[in-house]
Amino acid sequence: MNKVLTIMWKDARVLFGDWAAVALIIAGPLVLALGMGLVTGAFSGGDAPAIGRIPVVLVDEDGGQLAAALAGLLTSNDLSDLLAVEALTDPDAARARVAAGDASAAVLIPAGFSDSFMPDMATGELPAPVAAVVVGDPGAPVGAAVVRSVVDAFAARADTAVAGVRAGLTQLASSGAASPAELPALGQRLGEALFADGAVAATASVIRVETRNVTATGQPFNPLAYFAPGMALLFLMYAVTLGARTLLSERREGTLARMLAAPVSSAQVLGGKVGGIFLGGFIQLAALILLTTLLFRLNWGNPLSVALLVVAAALAATGWGLLIAAVAANSGQITNMGMALTLLFGILGGSFVPLNDAWPALDWLSRITPNRWALDGFTALAAGDGGAAVLVPVAALLVMAVVLFAAAALLFRRRQGALLTA
Amino acid sequence: MLNKLAAIIRKDTLLRFEGRSELLFFLILPLVFTFLIGGGMPAASGGDNRIFLPVADEDGTARSAALVAALAAGDTVRPEVMGRANAEALLDDEAVAAVLVIPAGFGAALTADGLAAGQPADVVVLALPTSNIGQVVGSEVSRAANALARPLAVAHLATESVAAVRPFASETERAAFFDGALALAAAEAAPPARVAYETPAGGNSYDQRAQASAGQLVTWVFIPLLGASGLFALERVLGTLRRLMTTPTRKSTFLLGAIGGQYGMALVQMAILVLFGVLVMRVPWARDPAALVVILAAFGLAGVALGTALGTFIKTEGQASNLSIMLGMAMALLGGCWWPMELFPTGMQQIAKVLPTTWAMSALTDITMRGQGLVDILPEAGVLLAFAAVFFLVGLWRFRYE
């Protein structure tokens, strides 16, 4: 057993003694998780992207009461954390700013906008609508959509208010509660009350829609709890292929043959090498969990369940590493196949972006990847689920490991002579 | 001179493609990533591709049924009413990414009395935190709810505003007035469009396929260009660079050949990825071919120059391989190749301007989405060429045969 452990430890030391490899498998996922954390607002404490203030340019060619109310809403204190509004006078200049990507959106209020909401006091008819224009930058879809939704909501409320006045006047007239002669004055009073500064913007929604992310603790889900394990698992696959490469590189360099010349059986040598691959993957994953906990204050969930998941994920990844080593002809092939598998498993298993929304059909394919199962388990734990949540992922990873170990053993047995001798 | 250059380029191309696995990184994986992240080909017509949305209707009134009907009439979701336990079980199993709950009291809040009480009717979208579907469903529910609520809001406003200037004699009169106003509002034609939405002239709306096609092109071309540093390391380790010293080959000829080979391969790779974008993903790459050629040429130069400079710092091919993957991925991510740059905090957007990937992605977005042309992307091309000049100078200055 000591011999197996010695070989395991030696391989792990070789792996972590190569600063470039360490940079890739430890610093790589840390840097990428940090970048994704910045993008997703994980460091701002929110569960929505921490989008910066959206640059907006505003041109008011109307100068009416409603245009002023819309401009007031866009520049209000309530929206000052969200929008950075700059007033311009030339619509073409505003459009050019959006076209150049310097502003996420331009809000153009043409002359006649306010008047087009005002019904004729005698007939109650509305003039032809004059629409405000939102020019959105297609390169900034979120910012443009936010501005559009603010302007849409304002216009809808103003429109509802106008319809309310018209309905009120019509009802008063049809019920005989007001004479036709009284209607213009009444309409004036109703309109003034509804279109007073800020009143339209303040009109409350009748139906309130709340979107709530589901976590066991009821706390907002930290997006980093998805991306950090996603990146760690991506590079776990690469770490195990680096370990698997030593199998063939030791054969090429003759050190494997030298080991066999010592009083060590081939089973002990292979056991040590496999253990070394596992240990490398385990250390890499465990180190990333520790570092993200310390650096990003990321809560991974119940430590025992996390440890169980780390062991199972490292075993399953080791299985894939062994299978690659079993079919590859040389260490260069292992590197290439390992990197290809790392990236494919990364995209299928959701390490880069969750694909299931766009590709439900890929769900079954993702199940062959350790990334998917381990990511399921890690995100469930981070969301506050108990240890039971990792039972299925752990079982799936262990079954995967057993199947892959068996397949690799079968392949190794066929080429044992070639593998263990120079 | 030309013969030597051709020989070096031929040698490097043979070295790179000596194993068929290189095709994986050169072609297959970039295409797979572009296709998957871009969401595949434009949707074919026919079939119901709407998002399946379990609805737990705990209210059970005509109002809640109307909300479900309004959702069903839209193009985004396919609602199906079921018990809350069943709906939540589907969410727990991740069989769906969002569930709509209409709590008891929804309908009551939308009566004259409920509206007068000033308490909005609540609906809740429960969503998986790891999916964007929740936001899509939330927007769609808001749209349907606003359409449903409009006549009620109009009647409520009519009643309240009239009451403010001419109070009702009794609650009965008030209720009758509300009902009359509601009937009027319900019979009213759909409100006119008060907001027009435009994109810059010649541009189109945000297109995930264009974002993926451009972003993955930058990512997958940039990584091997940085990996060109490994070529120098390999030749240094094998001693072939020292051997070159014994031949009448100038340092500049060798560098030009080595760099030219990688650059040529990058141009071929970019051409293939652009063609894939045009033919399969229907990305408008060909809107301004001159602009596209200029920016891709400048980006390729910046990438290969950075690879050359890196090659003078690293010692082994393995280090080059690892570093190019890590740097390439990180620079692509922070350069807006995976998500639109606007999602980054403002400070991060400024910091990211030190990366060539940011400028390349900005110009490619100009071309594919903003409808910009050659003149508009010249600033980005200029910055990329400046990057190239600086990195080439560093590489030339530090280059050693041993």
Describe the model.
- The complex is a heterodimer of chains A (422) and B (402).
- Helices cover 63% and strands 7% of the residues of chain A.
- Chain A is an alpha/beta fold.
- In chain A, α3 links the parallel β1 and β2.
- In chain A, α2 packs antiparallel against α8 and α8 runs parallel beside α11.
- Chain B is built from 16 helices and five strands.
- Helix content of chain B is 65%, strand content 7%.
- Chain B is elongated, with a radius of gyration of 30 Å.
- Classes of the chains: A alpha/beta (422), B alpha/beta (402).
- Chains A and B meet through α2, α4, β4, α5 and α6 of A and α2, β4, α7, α8 and β5 of B.
Show unreliable segments of chain B.
none
- Overall mean pLDDT of chain A stands at 82
Q: How are helices and strands ordered from N to C of chain A? A: HHEHEHEEHHHEHHHHHHHHH
The assigned structural class of chain A equals alpha/beta
Q: H/E order of the elements of chain B?
A: HHEHEHEHHEHHEHHHHHHHH
The share of residues in helices of chain B is 55-70%
Number of strands of chain A: 5
Q: Separation of termini of chain B? A: 23 Å
TL;DR of this structure?
Chain A has 422 residues and is of the alpha/beta class.
Key features?
heterodimer, A: 422 residues, alpha/beta, 16 helices, elongated, B: 402 residues, four-stranded mixed β-sheet, 65% helix
